[in-house]
Amino acid sequence: MPILSLPPDARPREKLLARGAAALSDAELLALLLRTGIAGKGVLTLAQELLERFGGITGLLQTGPDDLKRVKGLGGSAKRAELIAVLELARRAMAGRLRERQVFQSPGEVQHYLQLQLAGRGHEVFAVLFLDSQHRLLAFEELFRGTLTQTSVYPREVLLRALHHQAAAVVLAHNHPSGNVSPSKADETLTQSLRAALALVDIRVLDHLIVAPGAWTSLAERGLM
User: Which candidate among 12, 23, 41, 109 keeps its CA 20 to 30 Å from the CA of 190?
Assistant: First the structure.
């Protein structure tokens, strides 16, 4: 149904201004970003189809630009740019919170932050959260790309970046584009190799998280650290 055919108090923009953003559904909020639909499909319908296709707001935010480009109705750069901008704002907001408090006081935020950063990638990315002595975020860096093995992730490079940030601890992270977040033997071996290298300079590896759209796992919680 076209938005203009709705009663004024049911239109997303008017509803938001009158009742606040919390009163809107996910589809209505997304429709405000998209602004217009496409031929034969109103913006609310387009928004709902996007949410269903990508698994809700969380899945949509974890979607990469290339996936959005293939969606009919998002072929133009303006709509894609706005969605990507919202994603970046969410990342920065989460990073700000992680800098203000101990990372493991808010494990859910760490999980969501890493999913926003990595889960939508079509290739494997290895990244590190560098933490201070109070386990607050100092920096997040993507260090390696491609198929991750003990030989493609260099402990020396991780060590140098940790020293650069004067980190007291780190959280390792990478994505599994396949969607299966079960750690492989290579993941376990890599974790132990990095733990040993960083222990030489008294930097702790607190966890190694594996993320995918809608899923994640912690090697520490599995007793693999």
Answer: 109
In the chain, the domains with their CATH numbers are: 6-89 (no CATH), 107-218 (3.40.140.10)
Q: Which amino acid is at 171?
A: V
Report yes or no: 12 and 29 within 8 Å, Cβ to Cβ.
yes
The letter for the amino acid at 141 is E
**The model's pTM:** 0.69
The three-point CA angle 30-66-145 to 5° equals 120
| C-alpha neighbours within 13 Å on the C-beta side of residue 36 | 8
CA distances from 113 to 42, 165, 205 (A): 32, 20, 18
Distance CA 30, CA 42 (A): 12
> Max Cα separation, the chain?
67
